[in-house]
């Protein structure tokens, strides 16, 4: 007797299978499962995928757009300044309520694992207190990782280092940093040496806002790779953004890419936000603001798309849908070959799960029973349509359902119903 049976779904690799679930575990995956179940979901012709994963977000600021006012210049620096005002006004309750609302959105989209950076700059650490409360509140359906993030700089901010340590002692999961926002390149490099030592001593992962700038001489990713190797942190470190690479000299990058691969550093570009915030000082030609995604992938680097922001001081849009993120990334990185489009889907599922180090992630027997049924036939079609999530299963429980996205039309001589699904390669 199964608790839940998903019948006839098409998996991301193109195979068709039934998935049997007991409790919070996938107990059987086979072409056909002949068993009774408490509930059966008919998924014939629909894509069944592991849940979406976002490895880079700012949940303490989400859904705060317009507070204390709109970012008039649209720049990263004005966004940081606005957030600096807001974090002194927002209460723990404010941040918890906004974050839980966003988690509702995420759950409805099949986004069931999120790594969020939490600002540790202010001595009050209300953001940390709020996100610890949210992590506990959503643990039954969303895996929420918290990054101790010294937004104003580990050394530049008064008590920056002390507050980061306090946040880790409170139970924050990952060590974060922002070396390009320190007062000097030397301070930035030293902050990375310090942060990687802290992570190594505590056995934690590292996720750095690294070189989020148009300056081609911002090369902190090189220092991050060096410190990763020095402390044996390979496979536990991520460089987020890496936008300075879009302006770097090609010869330097030809040396940098193998170093990143050797250090086992993952890369997390955030296409929606990177292309909005970067290049603001350019006239024409205007830089795209995205790191060298295809080149990183070609060197064997794990690359995952991140959401970064939704309706906050840095970004005035967003829905919580990781397919929106992958769709934009696919365009800006020019990943339009069928294999590359399929890769973009993997980058918001399996690749991001690997970056976060999620246990039991996938659609194999013994994996955690979290998955999403989409109104699409393939990963590529899912990217094209960003379709309805027909069912979202979190740890064995159906937590969200949506109707198909068909439209009824009244046009003489034409069908009465329109479906935008259309089989294509990949």
Overview of this protein structure:
The chain is an alpha/beta fold. 34% of the residues lie in helices and 21% in strands. The chain is built from 13 helices and 17 strands. A seven-stranded parallel sheet has the order 6-7-8-9-10-11-12, sandwiched between helices. Strands 3-2-1-4 form a four-stranded mixed sheet, with no helix packed on it. Strands 5-13-14-15 form a four-stranded antiparallel sheet, with no helix packed on it. Helix 6 (220-230) links the parallel strand 10 (205-210) and strand 11 (237-241). The protein is globular. The model has no long low-confidence stretch (mean pLDDT 97).
Overall mean pLDDT score?
Answer: 97
The proportion of residues in beta strands is 15-25%
Low-confidence stretches: none
Task: Characterize the overall form.
Answer: globular
The biggest sheet amounts to: 7 strands, parallel
What oligomeric state best describes the polypeptide chains here?
A: single chain
Pfam family, one: Amidohydro_3
Region (Disordered): 406-426
Domain Amidohydrolase: 39-398
EC number: 3.5.4.1
Question: Topology, pairings included?
Answer:
Layout: E1 2-10, E2 16-22, E3 25-30, E4 37-42, E5 47-49, E6 52-57, H1 76-89, H2 92-108, E7 111-119, H3 126-137, E8 143-149, H4 160-170, E9 174-177, H5 185-202, E10 205-210, H6 220-230, E11 237-241, H7 250-263, E12 266-268, H8 271-277, H9 293-298, H10 322-332, H11 338-346, H12 350-356, E13 371-374, H13 379-385, E14 389-394, E15 397-401, E16 407-408, E17 417-418
Parallel strand pairs: 1-4, 6-7, 7-8, 8-9, 9-10, 10-11, 11-12
Antiparallel strand pairs: 1-2, 2-3, 5-13, 13-14, 14-15, 16-17
């Amino acid at each position: 007797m199964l608790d839940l049976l998903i019948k006839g779904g098409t998996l991301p690799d193109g195979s068709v299978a039934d998935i049997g679930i007991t409790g919070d575990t996938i107990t059987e995956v086979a072409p056909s499962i002949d068993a009774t179940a408490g509930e059966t979901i008919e998924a014939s012709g629909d894509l069944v995928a592991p849940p979406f994963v976002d490895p880079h977000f700012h949940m303490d600021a989400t859904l705060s757009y317009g507070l204390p006012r709109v970012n008039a210049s649209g720049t990263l620096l004005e966004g940081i300044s606005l957030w600096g005002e807001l974090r002194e006004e927002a209460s723990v309750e404010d941040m918890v309520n906004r974050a839980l609302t966003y988690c509702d959105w995420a759950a409805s989209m099949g986004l069931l694992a999120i790594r969020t950076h939490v600002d540790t700059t202010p001595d009050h650490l209300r953001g940390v207190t709020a996100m610890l409360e949210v992590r506990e509140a959503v643990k039954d359906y969303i895996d929420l990782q918290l990054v101790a993030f010294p937004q104003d700089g580990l050394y530049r901010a008064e008590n920056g280092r002390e507050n980061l340590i306090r946040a880790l002692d409170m139970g924050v999961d990952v060590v974060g940093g922002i070396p390009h926002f320190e007062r000097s390149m030397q301070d930035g490099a030293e902050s990375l040496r310090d942060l990687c030592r802290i992570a190594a001593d505590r056995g934690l992962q590292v996720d750095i806002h690294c070189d989020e700038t148009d300056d081609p001489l911002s090369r902190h990713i090189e220092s991050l790779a060096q410190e990763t190797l020095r402390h044996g942190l390979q496979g536990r470190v991520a460089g987020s953004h890496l936008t300075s690479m879009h302006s770097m000299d090609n010869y330097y990058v030809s040396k940098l890419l193998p170093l990143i691969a050797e250090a086992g550093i993952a890369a997390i570009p955030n296409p929606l936000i990177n292309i909005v915030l970067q290049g603001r000082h350019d006239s024409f030609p205007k830089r795209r603001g995205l790191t060298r995604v295809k080149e990183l992938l070609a060197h064997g680097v794990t690359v995952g798309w991140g959401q970064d922001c939704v309706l906050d001081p840095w970004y005035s849009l967003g829905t919580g849908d990781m397919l929106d993120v992958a769709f934009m990334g696919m365009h800006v990185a020019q990943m339009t070959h069928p294999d590359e489009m399929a890769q973009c889907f993997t980058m918001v599922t399996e690749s991001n799960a690997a970056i976060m180090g999620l246990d039991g992630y996938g659609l194999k027997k013994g994996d955690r029973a979290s998955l999403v049924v989409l109104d699409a036939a393939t990963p590529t079609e899912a990217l094209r349509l960003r379709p309805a999530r027909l069912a979202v299963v979190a740890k064995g429980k159906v937590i969200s359902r949506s109707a198909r996205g068909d439209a009824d039309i009244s046009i003489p001589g034409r069908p009465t119903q329109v479906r935008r699904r259309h089989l294509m390669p990949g």
